[in-house]
Amino acid sequence: MTKSNISRRTFIEGVGLTVANLLPGTTPFAFAASMEERTVAAAKAVGATDVSGMIWSPYLVPMQPVIAEFKKQTGIGVGAVQDISIFDAPQRAMAEALSRSPEFDFIHIDSNMIPSLASAGYLEPLDEYMKKADFKIEAIGDYATFMTFKGQTYGIPTDGNVHIQYVRKDLLENPDNKKKFADKHGKELKFPETWEDDLRIQETLMDPSKDLYGSGNLRNRANGPTWWYMIFYSAGGFTFDDDMNPTLDTPAGHYAVDIYLRDKKVAHPESAGWGTPQMIPRIAQGHVVSCQYWDGTAKLRRNRRPRASGSMVWCRAQISPASVSIARSRRRSPRC
Predict the structure, then answer these.
(1) Where in the sequence is the domain holding 32, given as residue range(s)?
(2) Domain check: are 118 and 72 in the same one?
């Protein structure tokens, strides 16, 4: 077998789902040197075919190069695809499960749907296929368990987003802003370490007359809860206790609501109806003071040149700042 041109990262981001198409009982093969080569070898044993699926185009389009390479090496490609938003996919997937529809070979969906779809008998466990290719999900912490339900694996991660903290570096380093902030708050203007720090920076440096708003966080119905959960978890909260009683009416829950509502005051007035297509350009163009956003946007920082308008951002990959009164600040890595 020739050496694969598919890198580990590209493979996982691309067609890792095709591992699900290996059939039990296929001819065993000698383990190759890399995970990619072992998977390609296992896929070749199945034979050429096209699989159909449900996947949102913003995910499918970046996968096309690796899909083409995988088909070239194995004969397995992606055929008919239904372009369904990730926000509408859960309802459609459950409808497929309840109707026992055979339309899709794979679905690209949030991992929190695995228990429901597996319980409905819609998903097939992947463990035997993974074992044949010696394929393992390598992820930080317990992330790989998100793909499992009752001890069996039902999915392969393709999008492992986490949130990172952004702040406009030029605003923090501006001498006038430094004096303004120090005069108002009696402390140095620097990268935020708590939610309260972040809000103070946003409130002090925003200037709506210049289309500069404090927060670039999403607040729409589909995504807003994600930002609330960040605050809630960082304050030591968890959604249920050991007896599955809800734990939102707690100090951590009250704190998260308070910070979330304060963030609304420094956000663009129309942001409650915005999603990623509207917010990412505003972050990239420097129209927000700070925000927490998915790490995939970090490439915008690398791809942009500094401009006089101050569109550069300063980011730090971390668990978002927690309240000093409830939980200590926890960081995962230095500034990026």
Answers:
(1) 8-153
(2) yes
